[in-house]
């Protein structure tokens, strides 16, 4: 079994294709999140409003992360084009690495 290849994630890699906004709700189908690695931990991630008024990042981890736990969501995040794969979040300089699988492209 070969190991899957990854690359640093860009914000556009994580946009939820069936997302919804409070003013434009979806039909109730589950959100399509992308398979990723967060600090090396397998997870599902997406960027969307998730039925609210503002964009946020949502991460569901396969195992608990020391700082993020099993489920993480914040609207205070940024993945800069100059620094793909680094998600800065919160107001205290926190960050984590995030990679997408290239075989999903």
Task: Give a written overview of the molecule.
The two termini are 20 Å apart. This protein is mostly beta strands and 105 residues long. The radius of gyration is 14 Å and the shape is globular. The protein has strands spanning 6-8, 34-38, 41-48, 56-65, 69-74, 77-78, 86-89, 94-101. A hairpin with a 7-residue loop joins β3 and β4. 0% of the residues lie in helices and 44% in strands. Strands 1, 2, 3, 4, 5, 6, 7 and 8 form an eight-stranded antiparallel β-sheet that branches. It has one domain (6-104).
Q: What is the fold's blueprint, element by element?
A:
Elements: E1 6-8, E2 34-38, E3 41-48, E4 56-65, E5 69-74, E6 77-78, E7 86-89, E8 94-101
Antiparallel strand pairs: 1-8, 2-3, 2-8, 3-4, 4-5, 6-7, 7-8
Rg (CA only)? 14 Å
Percent of residues in β-strands = 35-45%
Number of separate helices = 0
* E-strand count: 8
CA distance, first residue to last residue: 20 Å
The dominant shape is: globular
Biggest sheet features: 8 strands, antiparallel
Percent of residues in helical segments? under 10%
